[in-house]
Amino acid sequence: MNKTQKDALFSITMSALLLAMVVTIAVVAKLPRSLSWFWFLLTYGIIGLSLVFLRKRQSPVEVDLDERDKLIKRRAMLTCYFSLWGFFIATCTIPWLIVGPEGSIPVCVLPVILLGVFITVMLVNSVAILIQYGRGGKHAKE
Amino acid sequence: MPKSEISNQIRRLRFENGEMTQQQLADKAGVTRQTILAIEADKYSPSLTLAFRIAKAFGLPLEEVFQYGEKK
Q1: Are A67 and B31 in contact (CB under 8 A)?
Q2: Nearest chain A Cα to B15, which residue?
Q3: Chains A & B: contacts with CB separation below 8 Å
Q4: Which alpha helices (H) appear in A29-108, and where do they start and end?
Q5: B31 Cα to chain A: minimum distance (Å)
Q6: Which of B21, B31, B37 sits opposite A66 (nearest CB)?
């Protein structure tokens, strides 16, 4: 597994963690005050930080990025660009369908929508990278 | 219209060169092992520069490592 694949897997892990954190906040906010959400946040924070610090470093001898990796990254970015337009259309139409053209949404929902789009685009990028590599990275060393 | 195809002899040449590993060839060509794997499996056509670097790693002219053919 090369650096690009490792980075993509790392991004997927972090995105999943971030999504779990957002869901936890949404769920815990409805729970009684006795169950403080601070402990949930602290737990996820510790897990997230440990992932950052325990992340396996690439060997300095190995080549970080070659022409094929650059091509794969470029294609993944193109996928992100088109998916971003899809998410833009979705974020415009879904609230319209839910609350109607004259409806209103709380201001605090906007950052959540932005965060959701950011996480999803990050996931699309990582998945696009991993799909392009296919099963090639899993072959045994010859 | 016929589809162009670039084939290569990398796998054979590796074994003829003292059973060179993909990693060793990758290090000589300055790419990752996955790229050598993809080229060997005809899943990726290298750039001209990389093709020359791979040929140089074997000490052979380009046409002995890569062949161009037409596939219908």
Answers
A1: yes
A2: A142
A3: 45
A4: 37-54, 67-99
A5: 5
A6: B31
What confidence tens digit (pLDDT) does each residue in B25-66 have? 999 999 988 899 999 988 888 999 999 999 999 999 999 999
Q: Which residue has the tokens 């990028």?
A: A125
Here the tokens at position A53 are: 């610090």
A124 touches chain B (CB under 8 A): no
B41 interfacial to chain A (CB closer than 8 Å): yes
Please give the structure tokens belonging to residue A129. 């990278």
Q: Locate the chain A residue with the closest alpha carbon to B49.
A: A67
Alpha carbon distance, N-terminus to C-terminus of chain A: 14
B26 in reach of chain A (CB within 8 A): yes
Phi then psi for B13, rounded to 5 degrees?
A: -65, -35
Per the CB < 8 A criterion, the answer to whether B57 and B29 are in contact is yes
Say whether B32 and A142 touch across the interface (CB within 8 A): no
Integer CA distances (angstroms), A89 to A18, A77, A96, B5, B70, in order:
23, 19, 11, 40, 44
Helices (H), B1-72: 10-16, 22-29, 33-40, 48-58, 62-65
Q: For residue B41, what are the CA distances in angstroms to A48, A88, B38, B57?
A: 38, 39, 5, 19
Mind listing the pLDDT tens digit for each residue in A40-88?
677 777 777 777 766 666 666 677 788 999 999 999 999 999 999 999 9
